[in-house]
Amino acid sequence: MNRSKAHREISSKELQGAFSFSTGELRVENALTLAPGHTRQADLTAAGWDQCDSQSEWEASGVRWVSIWGRWFSITAHFHNKELTVIDLIWRDGSLLKEDWSATDEDLLKEKKTLAKLISTKAETLAVATSLGVDTFEFDWGVVSVRADPRSQMVTTSIHYLKKAPS
Question: Considering the entire predicted model, what is its pTM?
Answer without folding.
Answer: 0.86
